[in-house]
Amino acid sequence: MPHLQARGLTKVFGPDPRSVLPLLADGVGKDEILERTGHTVGLQDVDVTVEAGETFVVMGLSGSGKSTLVRCLNRLIEPTAGSLSLDDTDVLALNPRALREMRRHRMGMVFQRFALLPHRSVLDNVGFGLRVQGLSRGEREQRASAWIERVGLQGYEGALPRELSGGMQQRVGLARALCTDPEVLLMDEAFSALDPLIRREMQDELLRLQEELAKTIVFITHDLDEALRLGDRVAILKDGLLVQVGTPAEIVMHPADAYVRAFVEDVDRSRVLKVRHVMQRPAPPAAGDAQPATASSGVRLHATMPLQDALTLLAEAEGTLAVVDADGSTVGQLDARTALAALVRGQRDGV
What we know:
By secondary structure, this protein is α/β, with parallel strands linked by helices. Helix content is 40%, strand content 21%. It has a 6-stranded mixed β-sheet, with helices on both faces. A 4-stranded antiparallel β-sheet has the order 2-1-4-5.
C-alpha cells in the first residue's frame, strides 16, 4: 500500500474555484481559463504515489505547480478537487484539530527560506516542534541536542539564526523537521537559496541521513541535477500538469515528450546511469561452453555504481568485469564497449 497517495489532485485559485472544474473537464487550457474567468489553475488532475522510504522529487519551471503540490499534501493549500491519503487516513476529510495533529506528528516540512524563529536559539528552534507537541523542556532539549549533533552543529546550540551561515541555518531547519520523527518529510526548494558548494554539502547530508533513516521524502526543486541526484523517482510538472514520472535513468533515457527532452538534453548520462542499467545478465552456460573472459585484476563493479565511475575502472581493465550486488553475489558483467555503446545509444534516443 502506498504511504502517500494523491488522485486527481486539482487546485484552482480564485473567488469561485469549483466553477472552473467543468471547463477543465472539457479540456479548456490554463491560459484560456485565466482569460475567461480570472481564475488561475495551479494543479490539474495530478496523480502521485509515494512509497514508504522513498525520496520522491517533484521538479519543473517556475509556475509549474510544484510548490502548490507539496503544500496541498499537508493542506497548507486546500485542494479544489481530488483525493489525498496518508496510509489509510483520508487527509482531505480531517477536521482542523486532526489536521494539526497530523502536521505535528506525521508530517514535517523544510522551507526554502529556512523559516527559523530569529529570537530563539538553535536549540530552541530545533526543539520547537516538540514544544508544540507538549513535551517537557528537559526531554525536548535532549532530543534536540541529539539532532543538532547529527546535522553537524554541535557547539552552536546557543547561537541565534543571524549568527549562522545559510547552510548552517538550513541544517537547523532540517534538524527541526526531523526532531519530531515525522513519517513524511516535505522539502520545498529547501536548498535553492544556498550557494552551490553549500548546496552540494546539504545534498550529501540529506543522502547520508536518508540512508540511515529511510524517511518518506517529497522534495521540490527546479534543478534537474539535484532531482536526478536525490530522487529515487522524479515527477516533472508543466503548467500544473504531470508530464512524466520515472526513475532518474528513465527520465534521462526515455523522456516522455519534447518538454522533458529539453530538460535532459545536456545531462551527463554517465552520472545518472548505474552499472545495473547497462550490465549484461549472462545466461547460464550450456555444457561445454567456454566461460567469458574476465579481467584478472580482481576488480569488481558494484551494481549501484554510477557509470561515470565504472568507466574509469573499465578503461583500466583488460576484458570484462563482474558486477556484484550488496551481498557480493555476481549479478552480471560489463565491458567498456558495452558501457560506451549504452551511453551513445541513450544520447541518440534521448534527444
